[in-house]
Every structure is written in C-alpha cells, then in structure tokens.
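Key result, reporting period 2: structure in, sequence out.
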C-alpha cells in the first residue's frame, strides 16, 4: 500500500510540475504577445523579440536590466533541453507503470480500473465544488 501511495505521489508531482510549467509558459507568452501586437499596430519600429518568462524565485527583485536579458537568454537556451527531458520522463513513467501493471492478475487490473475511476470522479467533484459560487459571492 505504501508503494502504491509513493507511486501515485510521484506521478502526481510530475503531473503538477508539468502542468505548472506549461501554464506558466502559455500565460507568459500570451502576456508578451499582446504588447508586441499593440506596438505593431501603432507602427512602433522597436519590437521585443527576446524570450520572456518568469525568473527563478526572488531574482526579479535582484537583477538589473542587462542581467534580466541575459537570464532570459539562458532560460531560452535550456527550454528545448528541458522539454526533451520532460518528454523522456513521461515515456519512462508510462513504461514503468506498464511493467508494474503487467504484474497484476486480471482481478487486480479490474480493481485498479475501479480505483482510478473513483479517484477521477472525486477530482471532478472537487473541481466542481471549487468552481461553484460561494454564498458570500452570491450576495
């Protein structure tokens, strides 16, 4: 049971990290594209094409403009390497989980399907509760 919990914890952690990275990349790119489009409409010749994104924790308040630009270039240089490693990690996790699932007897596989479906239903219900308007919001 502890092993199953550990595997689920690792899987959840990897998923959260991946979703966080994806969400931050999407939101930052969307935020950066809006000013560039606005300046293009104004006929501004200076368009920023440099990469953008969040700096590591607490760096934003420490670095000056030049350091910030250099940090963005460093981040951009690592982006494809990190994406490749994340894809590889996903493959390895899927392979590992497949090998572990292959160890299960048919009745265990059926029970696993039930447990996964129950967990999915709980997550869906929790999201629904989190998205529901609160009584204080309705007033």
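The corresponding designed sequence is given below.
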């Amino acid at each position: 049971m502890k092993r199953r919990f550990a595997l689920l914890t690792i899987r959840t952690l990897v998923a959260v990290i991946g979703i966080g990275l994806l969400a931050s990349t999407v939101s930052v790119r969307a935020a950066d594209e809006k000013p560039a489009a606005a300046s293009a409409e104004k006929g501004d010749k200076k368009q920023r094409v440099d990469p953008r994104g969040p700096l590591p924790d607490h760096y934003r308040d420490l670095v000056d403009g030049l350091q910030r630009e250099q940090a963005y270039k460093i981040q951009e240089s690592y982006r494809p390497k990190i994406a490749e490693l994340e894809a590889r990690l996903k493959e390895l996790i899927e392979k590992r989980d497949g090998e572990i699932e292959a160890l299960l007897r048919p009745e265990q596989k059926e029970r696993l399907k039930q447990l996964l479906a129950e967990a999915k239903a709980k997550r869906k219900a929790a999201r629904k509760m989190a998205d529901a308007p609160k009584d204080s919001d309705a007033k």
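The mean pLDDT is 79. The CA atoms of residues 111 and 117 lie 10 Å apart. This case is discussed further under Risks and Mitigation.
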